[in-house]
Each structure stands twice: as C-alpha cells, then as structure tokens.
Fold this protein.
Amino acid sequence: MSYSTFGKYFRVTTWGESHGKAIGAVIDGCRPGIELSEEYIQKELDRRKPGQSSIVTPRKEEDKVEILSGVFEGKTTGTPISLIIYNRDVDSSKYEKIKSLIRPGHAMFTYMKKYGIYDYRGGGRASARETAMRVAAAAIAKKILAEKSIKVTAYVKEVGGIAAKKIDYAEIQKNPVNCPDKEAAKKIEKAILKARGEGDSLGGIVEVVAENVPAGLGDPVFDKLEATIAQALMSIPAVKGVEIGAGFQSARMKGSQSNDAFAKKGNKIITVTNNAGGILGGISNGMPILARVAVKPTSSILKEQETVDVSGKKQTIRVEGRHDPCVAIRAVPVVEAMMILALADAMMKQEMVSRS
Amino acid sequence: MSYSTFGKYFRVTTWGESHGKAIGAVIDGCRPGIELSEEYIQKELDRRKPGQSSIVTPRKEEDKVEILSGVFEGKTTGTPISLIIYNRDVDSSKYEKIKSLIRPGHAMFTYMKKYGIYDYRGGGRASARETAMRVAAAAIAKKILAEKSIKVTAYVKEVGGIAAKKIDYAEIQKNPVNCPDKEAAKKIEKAILKARGEGDSLGGIVEVVAENVPAGLGDPVFDKLEATIAQALMSIPAVKGVEIGAGFQSARMKGSQSNDAFAKKGNKIITVTNNAGGILGGISNGMPILARVAVKPTSSILKEQETVDVSGKKQTIRVEGRHDPCVAIRAVPVVEAMMILALADAMMKQEMVSRS
Amino acid sequence: MSYSTFGKYFRVTTWGESHGKAIGAVIDGCRPGIELSEEYIQKELDRRKPGQSSIVTPRKEEDKVEILSGVFEGKTTGTPISLIIYNRDVDSSKYEKIKSLIRPGHAMFTYMKKYGIYDYRGGGRASARETAMRVAAAAIAKKILAEKSIKVTAYVKEVGGIAAKKIDYAEIQKNPVNCPDKEAAKKIEKAILKARGEGDSLGGIVEVVAENVPAGLGDPVFDKLEATIAQALMSIPAVKGVEIGAGFQSARMKGSQSNDAFAKKGNKIITVTNNAGGILGGISNGMPILARVAVKPTSSILKEQETVDVSGKKQTIRVEGRHDPCVAIRAVPVVEAMMILALADAMMKQEMVSRS
Amino acid sequence: MSYSTFGKYFRVTTWGESHGKAIGAVIDGCRPGIELSEEYIQKELDRRKPGQSSIVTPRKEEDKVEILSGVFEGKTTGTPISLIIYNRDVDSSKYEKIKSLIRPGHAMFTYMKKYGIYDYRGGGRASARETAMRVAAAAIAKKILAEKSIKVTAYVKEVGGIAAKKIDYAEIQKNPVNCPDKEAAKKIEKAILKARGEGDSLGGIVEVVAENVPAGLGDPVFDKLEATIAQALMSIPAVKGVEIGAGFQSARMKGSQSNDAFAKKGNKIITVTNNAGGILGGISNGMPILARVAVKPTSSILKEQETVDVSGKKQTIRVEGRHDPCVAIRAVPVVEAMMILALADAMMKQEMVSRS
C-alpha cells in the first residue's frame, strides 16, 4: 500500500528504492509560469550529496536529476512535474550476507511485518536516498516562498552533546558538519571521527528557522501549523522528536515567563520574545518560525550487536555497507526541505481564505 | 476556511465555538455493528469534565452529549455518527471589557490576522472546550482498538519541574493531577495552587503509552506512524513539543546505545529495550508505543502583563475568566484521545494492506 | 464506514437519517466575512419543501434550519458552519409491516448487504430528506458564486415523455412541476396525477444551466470539470445518467458539426454554438455550462410488485408511506445545489492557480 | 496546479505531455505480494496501441513500458510502483504553423485561459496519449479484481448511428472497431473510412460491463458507486455523457417498469431484470454493473473550420497531425481501465468496512 504523498495543495509524491532502477518524485500543484531548470534543482541537490567530506558516507551518488514533464520553454506549465534520478553507483553485495539478520534500529523488521516482503538491498524506501527527492521538490517550493521573501535555514545545533553556542548563518556551509558555530563545528567533527573509529555513530539536534512568514498561516484545530510542521519533520528518517519555539523548555516555565508580550514596532505588532516559535493557536503570528528536531544515531554500525535472524535464532551482526556516522548532518537540507514544503502548502491554502 | 477533520479513514470533524450555541462532531468511518450508547460516551467525557477539583477551572459545563445519527437499536449502522453538546453554562461578560486587547500567548491575535474577524468571547475554536469532542470521538475509536486488546494510557509526567518517579497506573485517577506517582502528585498539586495564588500558571509534560499495538502500522515515508502521532499530539492546544521513545535524549546517545537489540520471547521477536518507542522506520514493531508532549503554561493569567490593543497602543492586561492554572492536567484525556484516533486510523489503513 | 463529504475545498459533510432525531451538515471551507442568517437558508430550503402541491409527498416536514456554529454577529467566521434540522413529523409505522420485505428499486437490499444492519424506517441515509442539507449548504456556496455573478438554474425538461418545448425561467416557479414551459407543465401535472392514481410513478429529465462561469475552472485529467459535475449530479438519489452539452447526441454527430466554432464578441472569444456545454478538455471555456440528468421513477409505489423477503421467500409488496409520484420534480433544487457545490469547489481551487 | 490523481485507496497519478520527454504513472496503494512484470503490462498496453489498423492514427508509438520501482523479485512490495514510457516517435512540426490558431473543440483554448501558458505541440496533458498510463495502471488493478473473479469488458456499442445488434464478446478483438457484432463492425468501419475521406470524424457510444462484482461496493451519499463511475468515465477525453443501467431510458419509464423485481436463484437473491445496472442506492447489488458513455467525434479534423487566432482575428483552420477519425474506438480499453480503477478503489474501501 503505502501512500507517499506530502502536502494537500502543493503535493509531492516520491517513489523508488535505494537499490532499484531509479528514484523520483511527482510534484503536482505547482503554479504555472515559474522559471525552472534542471541546473537549478541540481545545485540544491548537490548541497546534500554524500561524498563531500571525510565524515559522510563515501557512496558516490551521481544524483543527476532530470525533469521529465511539466516544464515548457523553461517555465512550469501548471501540470505535474516529474523528476527522476537514476541509481548508478549501487553495490548491493554487502547486504547479501546479512539478509536474514534483523538489523537493530532499522526499518527492515517492521517492513517485513507490514508487507511480508522486503527488498533487503540497502534501505529500500527507508533509505536516506529517498530524501533526495524531498530536497528536489522543495527546491521548487522554495521559489514560491521566495515570492514572499520567506527564507528557511537549517543547521546542526548539537551533536554528541556538543552544542553550538552562537548562530552565524555564514558559517553553516563552511564546515563539514553544517554548524553555525565555527568552534563547535571543529569539536563535533572530531567527535564524529572518534565514533566512526569505534564502529559507532552519534545523534544530534537540527534547528530550523523560517523568516518573513506572514501571519495567518495554519488552521485552528487538527491542521495547526505546528501540527503540520511536526508531521513534516517527524517524517524524516531517524527523527524522534520535534519542538516548536521554547518547546520542552516551556513545560518548565510559568505563564508569565512563557507568554510573549506584544508590542508595536513600526507599523507592525510583534512579540518581544519568541517562546511561541512564531505560532499561536496553530496559526503563524508573523515572528520567525523556529523548530528543532532530535535525530537518533545512525542505526547501521560496524560494531557488533546482539540480534536474532528471521527465524528468531540468536545472532550477532556487523553492518558494513556505506553509512554516515551521524545522520543529523545529512538531515540538515532535508529538515530545510520539509519546512519549506509545509509552509508552501499552508501558504497555498491561505490563498483560498484571503481571496475574497 | 479551516478544515477541522482528523483521520483519513476513521474521520472526525469537530465544529463549534466555546461561547456559541453548541459544539459537536461528526464521526464518519466507523464500522457498522458496534454497540454504542450516550451513557458510554458520557462516562468517557466525565473524566475530562472541569469543576472536579480545586485546581481545575470552576466552569460547570454540563457536557451532556447526545447522539443524533448513525446508531440504530443500540448499534452503529456504518453511517456518520453526529454528536452534539449544547453550551449551557456560558458567561461571556468577562471578555467584553478586554475585547480590544491582544492577549499574550493566545490565539486571538492570529485568528484576527487570518480571518479578519474574531469571536472574542472565550477561545472560540481555540478553546479547550473543542477538545471535549475529540474525547467523545475517541471513545468510539477506543472500541475498535479494544477488539485487538490495544490499551492507551496517558498521565502527567512532570509539572513545574516536579517529575513522577514511578508509573503506577492505579494512581492516575486517584489524584486531581492525573499523575501515576502519589508523592509527586501531592507536590504538583501544591505547586499549582501556589502558582494560581500568584495569578500565574504552570507548564507540564504528559506521557502516553499504547500497549498491544500490532507490528505493521504506519507507512514508510511521509505518513510514518511517528509523523501521524506527532501531528495528532501537536494539534492539542498548548502543546509545543512531541517526542517518541527516547526522543530528544536519543540525540545524545551513540548508535550502540540507541539501537534496541532484538531477541526472541516465546514465539515473538521483541526488542530488549524500547528507545524506539515502538516504532522503527515509521512502522510499529509490536513494542509499546511511547510518546511525550510538552504543554506550555496556560496563557490566560490574572497577573498583569504588557501588551498592546488592536490599534497597537501600549496597554496592560489581566485575563479574568475561568482558566485552569495548569492545562497539562486537562490535557491528559485529550492526549489519550489523539493517540487513540491516530492508531485507529492507522489500523483501518493496515486492514487494506493485509487483506489479500 | 461511509464517507459523506462532497468537495475538496468547499467541503460539505451531511449526516442523519430520515427517521432519526435530526439531519445536519457541516460546511467546512467557507470564507470568513460572508453575511449569513438562518432566514436566508430557510428561504432556499422552502423551495424544496414537500407538501406544497397536490403532486408531491404530503409529509409536513417543518425543515426549520438552525445555524449552530461558524457565524458571529451575522457573518461567517471562517470556522465550520454546523446546520441542523430536527425531524419532527416522523411516522415510521408504515414501515413496520414491510420491514422484512426487500423493496424493489430501493437501497434497502444493498445497505443490508453492505452494512449487515439497516434502519428500515424510511430511507435512512438514502432518503430524499438527506438532500435538504445539500440545498442548505449550497445556499451558502451560492453567495460565493454570486460574487462573480454566476447564476445556476435547474428545471424539469421532460417527464413521462412530455418535454418542455421552450425555456422561460419566469415560468419555473409558477407551476408545481418546476417546468419552464407553461403548456408542458400542465400536461406533465396531468400525467403525474394519472400515474399516482394507478399507484405508479414517473421518471424525468432535469436540465441545469450555469451562467457567467469564468473560463479556466476544472482540471485536465481525472478532475475534469465534467467529471466533477458528473460525480456531483450522479450522487443525487434516483439519478441514472448525466450528460454535458450535446451529450449523447454528440455520439451521433460528425466532428464538423460537433465542434463549436470560435468567434469574437466584444472583447471576448466565444463559441458560436455550445455543443461542448461550456467545457473543453475538462476546463470551462466561458460559455454557459449545460447539463442534464436522467431521474428514474420513484421506486416506492403502491402498486403490487413481485419480490422476496430477507430469507429469499417469494412475496408481493405494496409500499404505502408518503412518496412523491415523480422525484424528478423534487430533484430540481437538488440538481441546482449539486451544480453550485461543484462550481464553488472548482472556483476555490482555481484561486490557488491564479494567485501568483 | 492540476491534481492528476485518481482513486482514494488504489491511487494512480499520471504525468507527462504527449510531445515531452516521457509519460508516466505512480501507482500508490497496491498491495504487496502481487506478481507483476513489464511483459504483462506491455501486453495490456498493446491492445490500445495506435497503428494497428487502417482506421486509427498511424503514429508509431513504441509505448515500451518500464517498471522503475515497487517490484522486487517479480512481486509488488507494497511501495509505490513507478511506470514510464519514453516518447520516441514525436513529430511536432505540424503544430508549429497553427500554434496561434484556436482549435475548435480542443482543450488548447481552455488551457491557455487556465494556465496562461500552453505547450502547443500535440495535446499536452489533454492528449489521448495520457490514457496509456491509465491502461497500464489498470492492468495492475485488474489483478486485484481477478482475485474475486471480477471481469470488466468494454466494446463499441454504436458509431455514426450504426448500433451493435448483438453482444458477442469473442468478436470484440477480431475487428478493428472493437465491436461485439460482426455485421455492425463492418458497417462502422466503412462509415469511419468515409468520414476520414471527407476530412471529418465520427462520434460513438462505448458500453462496459463488470461481472461478478460483489454486493456492497460504493457509499450511500456523495460517493455512490454510480457517482464514482461517472467521474471515472467522464474523465476520459471526449466523453460527454455517462449512463448506468437503463440510464436516460429510465426517465421515460414508470416505476412499475423500472423497478427490477427481486427473486431467489440458488442461494442468492438476484433481480430478474437489470435496469438498475447493478447499483441500488449507490451500492452494488451483485448484478452486472452496466454503463455507457457518449464519445464526441475527434475535434482535430482536416476539414476547414471557422475560428479565430489568439488575438481574436477571424481565421480558418485545418488540423493536420495524426488523428483518429473516431476516438470512440481508441476509448474502449480506456473505458475498461477507468471502470477497473473505480471498482478496485471501491473494493479496497469496502475491505475496511467488512473487516470487523
């Protein structure tokens, strides 16, 4: 079964397995008349390409994206945009020998339970490779947000207990761990290399900020903007927690601390603090939207682990393959992508409200 | 605009404002042949009824639920079930005098921005009163889960920094703060009374456990079970964070710690620990599903706060009305309800997969 | 189960059985700021009220509609609008004695097969009474269409083989058969009375015209405007056929006859004929949208019919109750309502396209 | 914008333009464990391949379908199935010279109005080529129906006023016009050749029968099985009318004629006649489902027609390209496909109902 569509208005459907013929996406719901080229999407994709540094997986994905439909003479036509990336650098041999072992922390067990069949080569649909298509789709949505000057930025906030102390956007792409604090970045890199040396992996926290989001996005009840963002971010592989604004910290505050006081700034009513993370009652209030996600450590590790095989017999497992020692780093552009897709969807919906 | 429907298969649509004529829900997607009475739903509702103790709002809602359709001779017919509760104990006078002041931490500002019109009496759709209908709808869904012995339990884990040290389900309903630890409950009650005495409010953490959930629920990509649960829980008023299993703690773990080892127990493959919170790769693995939500302190407080009026002029505000000093306590049955609705929906979907 | 929602953007969910406590609708997706009163909706409903003439069912439904939510100080707030009509003039005694007989041409058999349970009193959800809520919901949608001067008119085109020869809108509401041709109306009335005298019923054709629909509504593939209209109209009880423009007649034409030539009229490009019924390639072309539906004769008739009982034993049946001898007449406001709802939905969707 | 998805449970999304790089479909909602090969889908596709006879368009589409995902070791995995056909035999030159002329009866005008941009080469999304993907998707759905012995058969019932007098399924694929009556087939072929000789085209009627459909499919109100089928069939290019069972003929019947008497046959309750076309109250009754569609004549004809250009200036047009003189014939496998997709969707939904 398995519906694989995000968004009710700006709809993205992804398909494809990491070790199959190709992966792809159909973007249905993009407005006509938007300039779009393969080069532009490629550039966005290249930001997440593995093999860029010593600490991310050495798999050399070419990730060469092609636009197959929905664009005519350089502009979107309003019909579905089909994107495809053929899988070229695929090596499934490592998976052959562990194919009957249940991999701890991995989707393989639950896929078998759900479907009764499992493509044991790589992660199938659960592979981080699927997220390339989210980034590609978000590259298109980004153009719609840009019309309103909305800008979304994600970065590594913490890895292995080492937290960024300052947020300097200019630093993010300068270091291999996507961290906005130069000093923290160095320590994080070291910690990751150490974990890899031990055949182990590290978890982390990614933060994302959306600036210039107009007030009024999101709905009052089940489709609160927080709820949509939570679904979007929690759908990223390895994410186990999402918080908005002060998040879990607000559980330890008093109302008089947690409430953001309103004030006037120029012609605009703003809040002095932003514990709400830009959302009140499920609807954006015009302040920056702020969210954080917890990313668990990569489950595929070299270190020997206890497990059972599919028959239930006790076994040990070491997962070779090519795996990132810290998926939080690779998650950065994906977190950005999912926030973009959530906002684009909410914006399209709001256009129906505000039309009258 | 404002779509107010949760669930794709077991669909719940709520309607109604806290100070309007009535609130209600349409449950569309319930199977035929399930026994259902007003008395049964009423009993579930009474658990969340305010006015039950000294520390929750004294508003005396009668909350008398009526079933208007979809039930014939005591059984569901498979057609939409319409539920209604008339609003009887409504006093809007307190809101009259603050109707032009923007209330800190409250939905009023964003509703005005979104819709250009706002029912200033009470919280409108943003009121906790709307959640009565979620509980009523979940009472029905609960019967479907019970067929598979699935049991969902929520409780207060922490309030004002005071955390439950042990989990004894039998205690939860014995104390006014829905806490599974008798000692912690007493301290929490005291802390809440103190905060109320200061015209202030407290935040808290609610935990929810779903037992006997079969492996195989949830989908691989955007509709991961974690993502659906996150949306469900984050749609509860005042919730600002959601985590599954080890959640944010997993961001500080190594893979070798975070991965739950598989083992055989009887005929079943289980995991020895449950850092995954019962979900791997977005699909339930047969272990208990475990989630926590952060609930911010009630925004409506008596304490004087800085704000502006709708024209942007500086003002101070004290919100009188009848408000809980800690909404986390009232959130307990709602957290339970949303987890139930999320699971019922996932279960109905899985029935299509496993049918063949 | 049974989802009971029409529309993806302007969503109408109806609930309630003809012999239950009440019927109702939730309209979710209406813009804020639209003037709305119970009186206005009541007036629209009164057009379809039975008991208005000698040839429609004498059941005296009060059909007194109440607005329970979504309207504040006379205007829509953008939140769900809940409508309710309590069932007052309900007499289920006639159904008691035939409750085990399978009624020819009636939904009772298939409901039993689908749900295994059946509210034998009246038609349950299949009753024409459910359509009152479609008319009430369309009364709201009508206001949105009116902003663009769109006007929808339905009328009886043919009954018992007697066809209207001319279309004079002014006549429609002057005669009891909703026919735009005075002379045909008289003949039709006579034919219906004759059929009723024989314990029988008649079928008919209803035509509907939507004027001033802008070009551009509808989608290229599965959601062609024709397809949406076909679904909308075919969902009306007793409808067995739908055609657009020349419809079935176009199957007997040549391309050179069927193609509508384009021409310029003032500043607008129009077509000289309208065989397309205002829709080309699934998208409105600016010409009037024209559709016709075939309504089968009322299935509940006094005349004795062969059937079986639920055990399969041969029986005869005479259905007493209170039934219209020609439902096509009662269908007129419902056809209008469903066309209005289909267009309102398409219009809201187009607002997302044309926004940029 | 343009959502291009059919089905709520067995979902098919098509993408691609007739003169673009490729066309494709994503089938999301297919159960795991179903045998599936490219060869099998290809065989189904070849039935609709043009260039098979003298009376259908000579364009030599290779229509070589590839499966890109969702199948592992010859079986569906439960994840999205991506299908692609590259466009190879594309000649857009003929369209260059008429690109500013508005083509009568064609989607080009309305696309321009809707999107403000138009791929003038071929029909774009409106091209019959898009329907290849519907046939490919239905080939998969067919396997699900086959598990319940459901069999769907479509054929040409009438072309240019020449109707089939008998229904012999064995004849359908033996003649180039897909007609179940040998004699009628010959006359129809002659009529089509004559029309083509005159630079003109013919309309026709296609009938479709679904056998062994279990009772209980479809929903009571807006999603009546008739309504879903109507939407499905009306979404086929050039279809302007849909009728179920006796259809428009039932508008001329009396209730005592139109009602199908119930009787017992073996252990089953059946109806003696089938005016209802297998559907009562929107739900299947176990009798064969019977529908007919009216297909208008091909709009692209060689014969000179009056029109205007995009500026509104009077012009004449002759459409060269490669066009079928009677699209009703090409529509046969597409009508079959859409009926299959509608039934597969209804069947999946019913699995949730009947599960308890």
Observations:
- Chain D has nine helices and 18 strands.
- The mean pLDDT of chain D is 92.
- Residues 72 and 151 of chain D are 27 Å apart (CA to CA).
- The interface with chain B takes residues 9, 29, 31-34, 78-79, 147, 220, 348, 351-353, 355-356 of chain D (CB under 8 Å).
